[in-house]
Amino acid sequence: MTVRFAISSSDGTKLAYERFGDGPPVVLTGGALTNRTAAVPLARELAGLGLSGVVYDRRGRGDSGDTEPYAPVREADDLAAVAEAVREEAGAEQVFSFGMSSGGLVVLEAAARGAALSRIVLFEPPFTGAAGQFQDPVRVARLTELISQGERSEAVAYFMAEIIGLPPQAVEGARQSPGWADMTKIAHTLGYDTTLLGDATLPAETLAAVRIPALVLSSDASTPVLQEAARATGEALPSGTHRSLPGVFHQVPPEDLAPVVRDFFTG
Fold first, then answer.
1. Where does the Serine aminopeptidase S33 domain start and stop, copy by copy (predicted)?
2. N or C: which end of the chain has fewer CB within 10 A?
3. Taking 60 as the threshold, does the pLDDT of residue 2 lie above it?
4. H-helix segments, 159-250
């Protein structure tokens, strides 16, 4: 597909996106340390099931632009702009959205603010405060310091170890992976994700404002804290449900995930 720069968010930020398939659009919003390429496998699976998967670079990532200062409402406006653009492009009556991890926080914010989305699916939104694991402001401040000093590699490692809580061997494995360079390029956006999350408690006002049907998914191999966060989010949404799927830590294979997403959006 062709990368598109024809759309801009409400603050003028250029947004790059690609669309796979010709069915009703599903806008896929990625999580921390990813650009739109991470969602391409799921987009292709959805396209094969009669939908169209739309991947886009969140602001500050990949081929999209950025505008300071950062604010969650600006990310919500970005998603709304992409949804409206693909609605017109596809001549679609409905547009859906899937949010991965912190991308789910963007989807929730957009839906609460009235973005033209018919249904949403969230995969493990990290409201770990629902399970008693709150985001530590001291650690967030240290992450912010590393980013401001240009210590991109150390910021990514710190985020993985101290914010996510990955063991040292997992962080070292990530350092040695081919994707490490790409992650360090967008290390500055980690501050966006921590801002979106706040103290990691459930945002009652935002959740209450989401009136459309919502499905919250989790992997049965994720940590108990992430699984509880997903369950609690599903229960807190006015029209929400929660479902656990077989998978690995913080992930379900696209070929297994896509049919569940398709069935919810088209059911």
1. 35-253
2. C
3. no
4. 168-175, 180-185, 190-197, 204-208, 224-236
Cα 50 to chain centroid distance, Å, stands at: 22
Domain span including residue 176: 137-192
- Residue-wise pLDDT for 195-210, tens only, equals 999 999 999 999 999 9
Q: In what order do the strands lie in the sheet with 25-29?
A: 17-20, 52-56, 25-29, 96-100, 120-123, 214-219, 240-245
Does residue 197 form part of some domain?
A: no
Closest CA to 95 of 52, 36, 125, 39: 52
pLDDT at 267: 85
Is 12 inside any structural domain? no
- Pairing assessment for the beta strands 214-219 and 17-20 based on DSSP bridges: unpaired
CATH number at residue 214: 3.40.50.1820
CA-closest candidate to residue 15, choices 85, 67, 63: 63
